[in-house]
Amino acid sequence: MAEAYPWQAALWQQLAGRARHAHAYLLHGPQGIGKRALAENLMALLLCQRPAELRACGQCKSCMLLAAGSHPDNYVLEPEEADKPIKVDQVRDLVGFVTQTAQLGGRKVVLIEPVEAMNVNAANALLKSLEEPSGDTVLLLVSHQPSRLLPTIKSRCQQIACPQPKEAESQAWLASALPGCEEQERIELLSLAAGSPLMAVDLQGQGVREHRAQVVDGVKKLLKQQQSPSQLAESWKDVSLLHLFDWFCDWSNLILRYQLTQDEEGLGLADMRKVVQYLAQKSPQGRVLEIQDWILEQRQKVLGKANLNRVLLLEALLASWAMLPGQR
Question: Cα dihedral angle (69, 75, 81, 85), rounded to 10 degrees?
Fold first, then answer.
């Protein structure tokens, strides 16, 4: 069974304690807060033949089959490859499963993650199963970005907002999950993960703090005209494009915030505070807004897996960034 997280305790009591379950749940919230684990625990409970104290027993035939990955009444639908869409043919296979009778005589449980990976055709193919699931079937839909879902999908589910842990809860959990990290490193990782502790662990594994240090150093050299946009674009080949656009988007937000508030406490992580403050003081607000709009537009293309020329895109970003300081 998946690990349960302390910040989910109240929601779990509410979900697991129900006498009757909805035919479809949409579990949504930011990535990296444990939604998949919550869904897997609920799936195990719904399939268990001898549940006790709001938990699956772990010992019955159903639990043993689920643990072995061979439960005949359980179906997990996810992209065939990471970051790829869920295809309509995959959903049609799922619909075939939903129409069958449960082989163990109990419920059938379907888990779909992430739901927003379905293209429009795939989502439409799922609608009838969501509206009229066959027999005692429960569908668990997990979404990191519910705003990307068709309204018709959302309206057919009971929507459950999964809680994001408080910072103290996240730090306590990270201290045990990343025992080799200093407290300041954990604080930085959690900030880079937008407060999502599981994402912070992933970022640590990806070496994101080292990548961030490389990018911050490059931005400082760019503004001092010690390196050109093309040199930096080439040197950042190992850095995730989405991370780059997330950071530049965050920095443009911090610049605008400081221009409006002059609040030195709101300058973000220590590595870029002086740069953000300098750019806020030297950059015309209209220019900052323009570059922010452009960054957000490109970030959406990156999220949508558009076929982008990485080097040219980064050169354009850095050339605009280098031109930010100017006459106010």
Answer: -170
Which residues have a Cβ under 8 Å from the Cβ of 106 and sit 6 or more positions away? Answer: 47, 49, 62, 73, 136
Other beta carbons within 10 Å of 181: 18
Q: What does the block give as tokens for 45?
A: 């409970």
pLDDT in tens, 79-101: 998 778 899 999 999 999 999 99
| Residue 153 tokens, joined | 């999908």
Distance (Å, rounded) from C-alpha 136 to C-alpha 134?
7
Tell which residue, 278, 273, 292, has the closest CA to residue 223: 278
**Alpha-carbon gap, residue 33 to 197, rounded angstroms:** 6
Residue ranges, the chain, pLDDT below 70: 1-3, 326-328
Residue 297's SS3 state is helix
Instruction: Show me where the domains of the chain are located.
Output: 6-161, 165-205, 207-322
Pick the CATH number of 165-205 from 2.60.40, 3.30.980, 1.10.8, 1.10.287: 1.10.8
- 6-161 CATH, one of 3.40.50.1110, 3.40.50.1100, 3.40.50.300, 3.20.20.30: 3.40.50.300
Amino acid at 89: D
**C-alpha torsion 186→191→194→196, nearest 10:** 10
pLDDT in tens, 9-45: 999 999 999 989 999 999 999 999 999 999 999 999 9
